[in-house]
Design brief:
heterodimer; A: alpha+beta; 5-stranded mixed β-sheet; 21 helices; 23 strands; about 30% helix; disordered N terminus; B: mainly alpha; two-stranded antiparallel ribbon; 16 helices; 2 strands; globular
Chain lengths: ~650, ~325
C-alpha cells in the first residue's frame, strides 16, 4: 500500500538538460535594472553554455516574493544543508532511486569502481562572476580533505580516511577523482547531503588561506590573528558540519541564493538574496530561482516557529515544527494563517527503538541482553496496540527495526516478527532461559540472585512520543517480571554514554526505514557515532586494535565482511544482493526491538506557495526538501 | 573619604579575582565540554571524534585547569574575552551586540517599575488600609505571584487572538537593521511593551511593600508631627523628609539592579524571543560554551560589585547618618 502511494505521488521531477536557445533566456525583474545600468552582464552571459533545465513540479512559476522560515538557535547548520545548499555535483531524483546530474553534467565510474570522471558545465560562474572550473573542485579533494593541516570536519562518508582519493584536473571542464580502493557507493553518496562540500571552496577566494595557493600566507595569518592556515580556512570558508560555512557573506557561492545577512552567531535573523549567476533555468528559459529573497528568523525555541506558522508568517517549513503534537494546533489555524499541511513520508522504521547493551560490563546483564530469546520475549511482551491507541491515536502500526514497505529491501518477516502481543509466550521464553525465579515483587532474578533491573536511557525533546511509549513499554515489561527504569538524561550525556557503551539500554529512533541502503549503521554496526547496537563492534570494524574495540560475534563479523565487499563494488545489483544478506543476518540475530512506525509527517505550506511535491520522503540522507529543487518553488503574489 | 574609596576599590579587584577563579571552575564542573555538545548535536548528521580531538587541541581544552584559566584571565586583562565555540565569534563582540538591547528593555522596565511602585507605596502608606491601599497591594502581589513566563504567554495569546499581531522579538523585519527613527521607535514599542510590562510587574510588589512599610514607620515619628505643627503643607512635608528616608533601603538595592539588567529577565526574553543577553547567557551555560558563559557571569559579578559600591556612595550622600557612621 505505502509503496504504491509513494511511487504514484512521487512523479519524477528532474528531467535532464535539453539546452534552451540562448536568446530565449529570461531573468527576474529585479535584475533588469542592474543589467541595463551595466553593473551586471546580460543573462545569457551569466548562465553557463549549457544551463541545467529544471522541469517545474506543477507549472512554470513567477518571479518575486520572500520565503520566510525559522532557524533554531545558532547551530542550525543542517537547515541550510537540507534546503538552499543541496546543490552538489549530483543530486537525487525526486523518487530517490538514482543520482542525476547537477553541477556536473556527466559522471561516469570506471569498471573497477576506483576512478570517477566528471564533466562540468562550460561557462559556469561563482556568484561574483568568476569562472567555476574543475580546479575549484579538485583542490578541495587534494588540499583540504586530505590535508592534515585542515582542522575542520570533512565529508567522511564520501571520502573515508581509510580509502584516500586524489583528484586530477584534465581540462577546465573535466576532472577525475581516483580512490586507492573501490568506493562502491561514491556517486550515490555525492548526491547526499555531504555532496555540496566539493563545490563550496572557490579557489580564487579560499586559496588565499592555503599555503599552496598563497605565497604570503604568513602575512595573511598575522592580519587575521590566527595561528594556522587550517584555522583560517575553517573560519573563512567553513567545514563540512558546523555553522562556519554559512557565516561568511563575502565568500562566493554557486547556490540559488547568496547571503545578504549571513548566519553569524547571536543575531536574530538571516537573509539571502538571489544569485544572479545561478546555473539553472526552467523549461521556458527563465533563470532560476523564482523567489527573490529568503528570510529566516533565529528562534530560541521551536514554539516560536510554531507561533509564527500559526500566525501565517512561515511560508514553507517542516524542520523543528512538524511533530504529531503540533499537528492539531496547525490544523485548527489553517484558515486564519492561510496555510495548509502538506503530507511527507516518514522514513524511520520505528519511532521507538529499544537497544540493549550486549557488551555491558555487568556480566549477568551482558549474558541476558546477548540472548536472542530474551529480546524476543521482551518484544512479545509489549502491547503495541495499546501504545498505538494511546500515543499515536491509532495512526501507527507495529514495526521492528527493519526496512519499511516503501523501501526496496522490505522483508515482511523482519519487519513484523515478534510484534504480536503474547505475554504467556514471553513468560515461557524467559523461564526457559533460566530467569524462572522471582522475588517478592514478582521481578525475575538473575543468575547471582539479584533482581533483573536495568536502566533505559532516553532523551526528552527529540521525538515527543519517546517518553510516552517507553512508559507504556516499562509497564508491559513489569507484567512479565522485568524491572526496567526510565532514565531521562540530557542529550549530550546520552550520546557520550552511547558512544562510550556505558549504558544498560537506551531509546532512539530507527533510522533507515526507507532509504535503508544509505543508513546501514542501524542494521550493521559500522558507525562509531551512531550504530543501533554494539558500538565497540563498530570500533572493531574501524580498527580491531583501536581503544574500546570488542571482537563481535561471528554473525556480526560476517556482516562486516559483506559490507566491506559492498563498498568495494560499483555493480548496483551486486550491492543490493550483498545488502540483502546483511539485513538477513540482522533479521535472524534480532539485536534491537522496534515498537511502532511513526505516523507520516508534514510540511506547513502557505496556500500561495507552489511547486512543492507532496509525500516527499523525510530523511537525512535524502535531505528533505532539497531534492524537490527549492529553486523552482514560487510564490503566487496575486 | 578618599582612603575609604581606594580601599574599597582594591577590595573590589580582589573579590573579582576570587570570583573569576570560582566561576571558571564551576563552568567546567559538568562532565564534557562544548565540543561534546557539538558532537552530540551533529550526531544525527555525521561529525567525527577525531575532529573533536583536533579542536580540543586548538582551543586548549585538553590542557589542565590552571593553564586554561591562566590563558583566559591573561586574555581578559588584555581586553580579549575569548572565543565563543558555539556562536563562532569573539565573546566581546557578542556581548556588545546584545548589551544595548538588554539595557534598553530592562532599563525601561526598571523605570516603569519604580515609576509605578514608588507612588503606589507612598499612596498606600498615607492612605493606610483604604480601598486604594488594598487594591494596589493586591495588584502588586498578583504581579509577583503570576510567573513571568505565564503572564508573558497569556499576553502573547490574547494579543494574537484579539488583534492577530504576533508579539515576539524587538523589531519587525523591516526595522531590525534600520537606523533609529520615529517609525522604528514606534515599532520597537509595539513589540517591547509586553516584555517591559511583564518584567516590571514581577518586581513591583517588593518595591511597594518596602516603600509602604518604611514610610509608615517614618510617618509615626515625632518629627513628622512636629513639622505638621509648624504648619508645613502635607505634600511638602511628606516628600521632604519621610519619603527621603524611606527610600534608603531601596537605594541600597541599586547594587542589584546593575547585574539584573543582564540576567533578570532570561525567561521573559526566551518567551518573547528577545535578542537580549539573557537567552545568550542561558544558551551559553547549557551548551558549556565556557568563554561566553564565563564572560557573562564575570560581567555580572563585576556589575554587582560596582553597583554595591555605587549604592554605598549614594547612600552616604543621601543620608548624613550613614556618612558619619
Amino acid at each position: 500500500m505505502i509503496q504504491k502511494r509513494t511511487l504514484a505521488s512521487l512523479a519524477v521531477l528532474a528531467a535532464l538538460a535539453s539546452p534552451a536557445v540562448a536568446a530565449d533566456f529570461k531573468q527576474a525583474p529585479i535584475l533588469d535594472e542592474l543589467v541595463s545600468k551595466g553593473t551586471l552582464p546580460a543573462v545569457a552571459d551569466r548562465l553557463p553554455a549549457e544551463p541545467l533545465t529544471i522541469t517545474p513540479y506543477e507549472n512554470v512559476g513567477q518571479y518575486g516574493g520572500t520565503w520566510r522560515s525559522g532557524l533554531l538557535k545558532s547551530g542550525d547548520a543542517a537547515y541550510f544543508m537540507r534546503t538552499v545548499a543541496y546543490d552538489g555535483l549530483l543530486r537525487w531524483n525526486l523518487a530517490w532511486d538514482s543520482a542525476v546530474p547537477n553541477v556536473a553534467s556527466e559522471a561516469t565510474a570506471s569498471d573497477d569502481g576506483k576512478t570517477f570522471t566528471f564533466k562540468l558545465r562550460k561557462g559556469m560562474k561563482w556568484s561574483d562572476g568568476t569562472p567555476f572550473t574543475a580546479a575549484d573542485v579538485a583542490w578541495v579533494v587534494n588540499d583540504i580533505i586530505y590535508d592534515p593541516g585542515f582542522v575542520g570536519s570533512k565529508p567522511d562518508t564520501i571520502f573515508p580516511q581509510s580509502n584516500p582519493a586524489k583528484a586530477e584536473v584534465i581540462d577546465d571542464q573535466t576532472l577525475t577523482i581516483a580512490f586507492e580502493k573501490p568506493q562502491g557507493l561514491f556517486l550515490q553518496q555525492l548526491a547526499g547531503v555531504e555532496g555540496n562540500f566539493l563545490v563550496t571552496y572557490p579557489q580564487a577566494y579560499c586559496g588565499q588561506y592555503h599555503p599552496a595557493h598563497n605565497a604570503n600566507i604568513d602575512a595573511t595569518l598575522t592580519d587575521l590573528k590566527m595561528g594556522s592556515w587550517g584555522e583560517a580556512m575553517l573560519s573563512k570558508c567553513g567545514q563540512m558540519y558546523g555553522t562556519e560555512r554559512w557565516a561568511n557573506a563575502e565568500k562566493p557561492s554557486i547556490l540559488a541564493w547568496i547571503f545578504e545577512k549571513a548566519y553569524v552567531g547571536g543575531q536574530s535573523e538571516v537573509t539571502m538574496i538571489r544569485n544572479p549567476y545561478y546555473f539553472k533555468v526552467d523549461t521556458e528559459g527563465n533563470q532560476l530561482p523564482y523567489i527573490d529573497r529568503l528570510y529566516m528568523s533565529v528562534n530560541e525555541t521551536p514554539d516560536e516557529i510554531v507561533l509564527k506558522a500559526v500566525a501565517g508568517n512561515i511560508d514553507l517549513q517542516n524542520r523543528h515544527i512538524a511533530s504529531l503534537s503540533n499537528r492539531a494546533v496547525f490544523a485548527e489555524n489553517r484558515e486564519g494563517g492561510k496555510f495548509e499541511l502538506l503530507p511527507a513520508l516518514e522514513t524511520i522504521s520505528a519511532s521507538t527503538m529499544l537497544s540493549f547493551n550486549t557488551t555491558s560490563s555487568n556480566p549477568d546483564l551482558q549474558a541476558v541482553f546477548s540472548n536472542k530469546s530474551f529480546r524476543q520475549a521482551l518484544s512479545l511482551g509489549i502491547d503495541r496496540q495499546r501504545i498505538n491507541d494511546v500515543v499515536f491515536f491509532g495512526q501507527a502500526q507495529p514495526h521492528q527495526i527493519a526496512p519499511r514497505e516503501a523501501d526496496p529491501f522490505y522483508d515482511e518477516v523482519m519487519a513484523t516478527q515478534f510484534t504480536d502481543f503474547d505475554a504467556d509466550a514471553a513468560n515461557a521464553l524467559l523461564d526457559e532461559i533460566g530467569l524462572d525465579k522471582r522475588d517478592g515483587n514478582g521481578t525475575r532474578l538473575l543468575a547471582d540472585g539479584s533482581p533483573l533491573t536495568f536502566q533505559v536511557n532516553v532523551v526528552d525533546g527529540v521525538y515527543a512520543d519517546w517518553l510516552d511509549t517507553l512508559g507504556l513499554v516499562i509497564e508491559d515489561w513489569k507484567a512479565i517480571g522485568v524491572d526496567a527504569r526510565m532514565n531521562v538524561i540530557e542529550r549530550t550525556l546520552f550520546v557520550s554514554r552511547w558512544v562510550a557503551s556505558d549504558y544498560d539500554a537506551f531509546v532512539w529512533s530507527g533510522d533507515g526505514g526507507i532509504g535503508s541502503l544509505f543508513r546501514p549503521e542501524f542494521y550493521v554496526p559500522v558507525s562509531t557515532q551512531a550504530s543501533s547496537f554494539g558500538m565497540p563492534y563498530a570500533r572493531y570494524f574501524a580498527d580491531p586494535n583501536s581503544e574500546g574495540a570488542i571482537e563481535p560475534p561471528a554473525e556480526v563479523k560476517q556482516q562486516f565482511e559483506l559490507y566491506r565487499e559492498l563498498l568495494q563494488t560499483s555493480d548496483a545489483d551486486r550491492q543490493k544482493d550483498l545488502y540483502r544478506q546483511i539485513l538477513a543476518i540482522n533479521r535472524d540475530m534480532f539485536p534491537v526491538i522496534g515498537v511502532t512506525t511513526a505516523p507520516d509527517t508534514y510540511f506547513v505550506k502557505k496556500t500561495n506557495f507552489h511547486n512543492v511535491p507532496a509525500n516527499m520522503p523525510n530523511a537525512w540522507p535524502y535531505p528533505t526538501p532539497g531534492p524537490a529543487a527549492v529553486e523552482q518553488f514560487y510564490i503566487d503574489e496575486n | 573619604m578618599l582612603r575609604f574609596i581606594l580601599s574599597r576599590l582594591l577590595g573590589m579587584i580582589l573579590v573579582l579575582f576570587a570570583t573569576s577563579i570560582v566561576l571558571f571552575a564551576i563552568i567546567q564542573l559538568p562532565a564534557g565540554d562544548y565540543l561534546s555538545t557539538m558532537l552530540a548535536e551533529n550526531q544525527g548528521s555525521g561529525g567525527s571524534a577525531e575532529f573533536a580531538d583536533r579542536l580540543r587541541e586548538l582551543y586548549r581544552l585538553d590542557q589542565p585547569f590552571v593553564n586554561q584559566y591562566a590563558g583566559w584571565i591573561w586574555g581578559i586583562v588584555h581586553g580579549d574575552f575569548g572565543y565563543s565555540f558555539e556562536l563562532k565569534r569573539p565573546v566581546s563582540e557578542l556581548i556588545a551586540s546584545r548589551l544595548g538591547n538588554s539595557l534598553l528593555v530592562e532599563g525601561l522596565a526598571v523605570v516603569l517599575m519604580w515609576g509605578i511602585a514608588v507612588p503606589i507605596g507612598i499612596y498606600s502608606a498615607v492612605r493606610l488600609y483604604s480601598v486604594g491601599d488594598y487594591a494596589f497591594t493586591i495588584l502588586g502581589f498578583l504581579g509577583l505571584a503570576i510567573p513571568n513566563f505565564l503572564l508573558g504567554l497569556l499576553i502573547m495569546y490574547f494579543t494574537f487572538v484579539t488583534t492577530g499581531h504576533l508579539l515576539g522579538g524587538l523589531f519587525s523585519e523591516t526595522y531590525s537593521d534600520a537606523p533609529w527613527s520615529l517609525a522604528k521607535i514606534a515599532d520597537f514599542l509595539s513589540h517591547a511593551w509586553a516584555p517591559i510590562f511583564v518584567i516590571a510587574t514581577g518586581g513591583m510588589a517588593y518595591l511597594i511593600r518596602v516603600m509602604r512599610a518604611n514610610l509608615i514607620d517614618e510617618l509615626k515619628k515625632p518629627y513628622v508631627d512636629f513639622a505638621r505643627l509648624r504648619g508645613l503643607s502635607e505634600w511638602r512635608l511628606l516628600l521632604k523628609y519621610p519619603v527621603r528616608i524611606a527610600f534608603n533601603p531601596l537605594i541600597s538595592t541599586i547594587g542589584y539592579i546593575l547585574p539584573s539588567l543582564i540576567s533578570s529577565s532570561i525567561i521573559v526574553s526566551v518567551v518573547f524571543n528577545l535578542p537580549t543577553s539573557g537567552p545568550m547567557l542561558l544558551r551559553a551555560l547549557m551548551a558549556q560554551d565556557m568563554y561566553l558563559a564565563g564572560a557573562f557571569v564575570l560581567l555580572m559579578a563585576a556589575l554587582t560589585i560596582v553597583g554595591t559600591f555605587i549604592s554605598d556612595i549614594i547612600l552616604a550622600a543621601a543620608d548624613p547618618r550613614i556618612r558619619l557612621a
